[in-house]
Specification:
With 498 residues, the protein is an alpha/beta fold. It is 24% helix and 17% strand. Strands 1, 2, 4, 6, 7, 8, 11, 12 and 13 form a nine-stranded mixed beta sheet that branches. Strands 14-15-16-19 form a four-stranded antiparallel beta sheet, with helices on one face. Helix 5 packs parallel to helix 7. It is globular, with a radius of gyration of 26 Å.
């Protein structure tokens, strides 16, 4: 048919081949063998196109990387995560201009192990840092700082608490040219920024990797003026009725009252007061992030800097009878903010899929054009950011301090299995062998344990947990040291040890 003798536009959907190395062979035919016509057919100019948005990434990894970890920051206490009361204009700016991971979760509830997971893209069971005690990161485990240092980045860290320093955790400084530590047990974000700004002034003209850790939202919540009065007026010790009477002041892994917490809230009768001070600490940190953004703009490097902002864990503010602390594997403790800000390269977006803390390292490296180490457990979420996939993680795992509990979750269900006994206080006791199953869609506050109603689901999740626990990963040896009295006192003052 002469009318068919023309070019036709053909489209082949390659979605099913995403992430695979494939070869394409283009074949044509001119109809059945009985066709004696001299017609012929062929392909011309095949192309691979994407109708999705594209990531504006240069081939060279010449831009800067800043990783900010804000201690004890719940995702649901930021305005950009739909918390209406708080004022966090700089978090809001990062979220408006960046990629917001709505469902990001930490792999644990405690500071040091969580940071090691972020830096190594390994679960606690594999990097072996299971608590905040003094220990050593195995020398065969590669950190993100080591990768970037090898690629020619100048590197620096500025932390705000002693248990994140090289004197406490040997090996955490691997890959860093400079490591700024507090002179005391902890310090304000403003003091940490002083070290950051001085270092940037000398190094901003070369590509760099900078890790900044802010400690302020950690208990006790004592924001400086004017942040202590942003969300509370009046005397909390004169309020009636007393809404603090059911609060239990017992902290960490011991049975004695924690003096620092008792003194901080001594005589307070209004439960909203500590919540308001927690929010005040977050607004204070937000302002310090604003100062950092101003410095980047001053040095004209704001448009060539990737910034990832997250937290090591959240905080319980009365949920499950846990007050002003981070215990258990419930969502108030594990649900964290995660924002990637790179306005010249990343289009603003909100990601709904599950994302883990261990995904941060490979994602940062891939955004700046680098290959992540082979023996990691996190996933590069760049395909989600690019719009090529909706989610990569169908399930996430988590671990409680010293392997007391383990957890598996998807978007609908969460199973927590207790492996050891541990008493937080008389209203919160972890009993070995306990199983907690929550329907997160219908019970987002995790109040109704439905494990007995769904034995098959519990069994399926348990099998997955056992397989995960038995997975063989790179060997690592944790050099646990005897706890001296100075270490005990530091952890005691932070609420971690008796």
């Amino acid at each position: 048919n002469p009318d068919d003798r023309k070019w036709f536009a053909e489209v082949v959907d390659l979605k099913s081949f995403e992430g695979k190395n494939v070869s394409f062979t283009f074949k044509t035919s001119s109809g059945p063998k009985s066709n004696n016509a001299s017609d012929w057919s062929g392909w011309s100019e095949p192309r691979i196109n994407s109708t999705e948005k594209k990531l504006r990434i240069k081939k060279s990894n010449s831009d800067n990387v800043i990783l900010i970890t804000v201690d004890t920051l719940r995702a649901d206490h930021l305005h950009c995560y739909n918390y209406a009361r708080i004022k966090t204009p700089f978090f809001d700016k990062l979220a408006k201009e960046g990629v917001v991971c709505k469902n990001a979760f930490s792999q644990t509830h405690i500071t040091l192990p969580s940071h090691i997971s972020i830096f190594t893209s390994l679960y606690l069971k594999d990097h072996k840092i299971l608590s905040n005690t003094r220990q050593e990161l195995a020398p065969d485990i590669v950190t993100i700082a080591e990768v970037l240092k090898k690629e020619g980045y100048r590197t620096a860290a500025a932390v705000s608490m002693k248990p994140l320093t090289p004197k406490w955790i040997k090996g955490i400084d691997r890959g860093f040219d400079r490591f700024f530590s507090p002179s005391k047990i902890e310090r304000r974000a403003k003091k940490t920024n002083e070290d950051v700004f001085k270092w940037l002034e000398k190094n901003y003209h070369k590509k760099f990797f900078l890790w900044i850790h802010y400690f302020d939202p950690h208990m006790p919540y004592e924001p400086p003026p004017p942040y202590n009065g942003l969300y509370y007026q009046g005397d909390p010790r004169q309020k009636e009725p007393n809404t603090m009477k059911n609060v239990i002041f017992k902290k960490g892994f011991h049975s004695k009252p924690h003096d620092r917490l008792i003194n901080w809230l001594k005589g307070v009768k209004d439960f909203d007061y500590p919540i308001s001070q927690y929010d005040g600490e977050i607004s204070y940190v937000d302002a310090q992030i604003g100062e950092l953004l101003n410095i980047l703009k001053k040095f004209k490097i704001d448009k060539k800097t990737l910034m990832a902002v997250t937290s090591d864990h959240g905080e319980c503010l009365g949920e499950h009878n846990i007050f002003f602390a981070h215990q258990g594997l419930y969502d108030p403790v594990l649900h964290i903010p995660l924002i990637f800000w790179y306005p010249e390269r990343l289009e603003p977006e909100k990601i709904d899929g599950l994302v883990a803390s261990i995904d941060i390292m490979p994602t940062i490296l891939n955004i700046v054009g680098l290959t992540h180490p082979a023996n990691i457990q996190g996933k590069n979420i760049l395909p989600i950011i690019n719009g090529y996939q909706k989610e990569l993680n169908t399930e996430l795992y988590g671990e409680h301090v010293n392997h007391t509990q383990v957890m598996i979750r998807n978007k609908k269900w969460k199973l927590i299995k207790s492996l050891k006994d541990r008493q937080y206080h008389e209203r919160f006791f972890i009993k070995s062998g306990n199983e907690e199953l929550y329907d997160l869609e219908n019970d987002p506050d995790e109040l109704n344990n439905v494990a007995k109603q769904h034995p098959l689901l519990v069994s399926q999740f348990t099998n997955k947990l056992e397989n995960w626990l038995n997975e063989k990963k790179p060997a690592s040896v944790s050099d646990k040291k005897t706890m001296d009295e100075e270490s005990r006192e530091i952890l005691r003052s932070l609420g971690y040890a008796n």
